[in-house]
Write a structure and sequence with these properties.
Elements (H helix, E strand, L loop, with lengths): L1 E8 L4 E7 L11 E7 L13 H9 L3 E6 L10 H15 L1 H4 L1 E11 L1 H11 L7 E5 L5 H7 L17 E6 L8 H12 L4 E6 L24 H14 L2 E2 L2 E2 L22 H4 L4 H6 L1 H14 L3 H8 L4 H7 L4 H11 L9
Parallel strand pairs: 3-4, 3-5, 5-6, 6-7, 7-8
Antiparallel strand pairs: 1-2, 2-4, 9-10
Length: 343
C-alpha cells in the first residue's frame, strides 16, 4: 500500500489523502471500489478520529480509501465543501486506471457535519456517489444553521436520483438528535430510495468506529457493528469484490424501479399495471399464474393489487415460485420498455 497527500486548495487548506492498495499481481482483479471519507467537526475541524480509523476499516475490506479534509469555517463557506468533493471525485476518476478503481463503485462516508456533506453528495452533487454512508449526520435546519449559515437541508433535497444510503446513529445523541436521521429516512422512503438504518440504544455523538481505542463516550457494545454492517450492505448494493472481480448487486436492495428510465422486475405491481400494453403482454405468464392463485383463493386480481400494490414484481414472482433464471429473463425483457414514471 502507498499513501499520497494531494493539495486541492492551498488557500483553503483542502487536502485529499489517498491510500492505494495493489491490484493484479497476486490479486486476480484489476479494479477495486473506492471510498471518500468526510470527517466531522461542525465544519470547524476535520476530526482525526473520523479519518484514518475509518479509512483503515474500508481498506481492510478491499477499498481504495481517500480522506477529504474539506474547506472549514474561516477558510471559506458553503458551497466550498461540496465543490471540494466534486474536485476530489473528478481527480479520483481521472486517475482511476493508475489507482485501480472501478469508477462505478465510488462511495462516500461522512460523520456529523461530514455526514451532512455526504448526504449532499447523495442528493445534490453533480458527481453523485454509487452509495453514501451517513453516521450521525447533520440533516435538519437547527443543527445545519448552527454549523454554518446557508447550508442546504438534505432531507429537503431528496428526489428520485438520490444515491442509496446507509445510516447509523445513537438514540441518545444530544448533539445531533435522531430526528435528523428519521426525517431523512422518511424522505428516502417517499422517493423509493434504498436505505438501511441502525439506531443504537446508546452511544451519544462522535463514536466514530466505536472501537475501544477511538470512542470517547459510553456506547453500547453493538455500536461498532455499523462498520461491518455498512460493508456488507455495500456488497449487496454494489456487488462483492472477489478474486474473480465483482459479483452482481443483490436485486433486493436495488433502487425502486418505479423511478428509473426503463421497466424492470423492481417496479411495484401497482406501478406496473399502469404501464403500456406491450409490458403487460410481456408479463402475461406472471399475470396468468397470479390470477390462478386469486381464483383458487376466491378473490380478484384487483383485490390483490389493492393489498399488494407496493410489492415489487420480483417479490411477487418469488412468492409464486418463478425461478431466479426466469425472473432474470423477465427483467431483461422489461428493460426494453420505457418506464412511464408519471402514471
Amino acid at each position: 500500500m502507498r499513501a499520497e497527500v494531494i493539495d486541492l486548495s492551498k488557500e483553503r487548506k483542502v487536502t485529499l489523502t489517498a491510500y492505494i492498495q495493489d491490484v493484479e499481481g497476486e490479486f486476480a482483479f484489476a479494479k477495486r471500489p473506492a471510498i471518500i471519507v468526510l470527517p466531522g467537526g461542525g465544519y470547524s475541524i476535520c476530526s482525526d478520529r473520523e479519518a484514518d480509523p475509518v479509512a483503515m476499516a474500508y481498506l481492510k475490506a478491499g477499498y481504495q480509501a481517500f480522506i477529504l479534509r474539506y474547506t472549514l469555517n474561516g477558510n471559506g463557506a458553503w458551497p466550498d465543501p461540496l465543490n471540494d468533493y466534486e474536485q476530489a471525485y473528478e481527480l479520483i476518476v481521472s486517475r482511476a486506471d493508475e489507482w485501480g478503481i472501478d469508477t462505478s463503485k465510488i462511495v462516500t462516508i461522512g460523520f456529523s457535519a461530514g455526514g451532512h456533506l455526504a448526504a449532499c453528495t447523495a442528493t445534490i452533487a453533480k458527481n453523485k456517489p454509487a452509495a453514501s454512508v451517513l453516521i450521525y449526520p447533520a440533516i435538519l435546519k437547527d443543527i445545519c444553521d448552527m454549523c454554518q449559515p446557508g447550508l442546504p437541508y438534505p432531507n429537503e433535497c431528496v428526489d428520485g436520483d438520490t444515491a442509496p444510503c446507509f445510516i447509523a446513529a445513537a438514540r441518545d445523541d444530544s448533539a445531533v438528535g435522531i430526528k435528523n436521521e428519521l426525517m431523512f429516512e422518511l424522505a428516502l422512503e417517499e422517493y423509493g430510495i434504498p436505505f438501511e438504518s441502525h439506531i443504537y440504544s446508546f452511544g451519544g455523538h462522535g463514536f466514530s468506529t466505536a472501537e475501544e481505542w477511538v470512542v470517547t463516550n459510553s456506547a453500547a457494545g453493538r455500536v461498532k457493528n455499523w462498520v461491518q454492517d455498512s460493508i456488507d450492505w455495500l456488497k449487496e448494493t454494489l456487488g462483492t469484490l472477489t478474486r474473480s472481480g465483482f459479483t452482481e448487486p443483490n436485486m433486493a436492495v436495488s433502487k425502486n424501479g418505479d423511478f428509473v428510465p426503463v421497466l424492470s422486475v423492481m417496479c411495484t405491481l401497482g406501478h406496473m399495471v399502469k404501464q403500456d400494453e406491450e409490458a403487460q403482454i410481456c408479463l402475461k405468464p406472471f399475470y396468468d399464474r397470479v390470477n390462478a392463485i386469486c381464483d383458487k383463493n376466491g378473490y380478484t386480481f384487483e383485490v390483490l393489487c389493492a393489498a399488494m400494490g407496493k410489492a415489487t414484481i420480483r417479490e411477487l414472482m418469488e412468492t409464486v415460485q418463478f425461478t431466479h433464471d426466469e425472473i432474470m429473463e423477465f427483467d431483461r425483457k422489461l428493460h426494453s420498455y420505457v418506464n412511464r414514471i408519471d402514471v
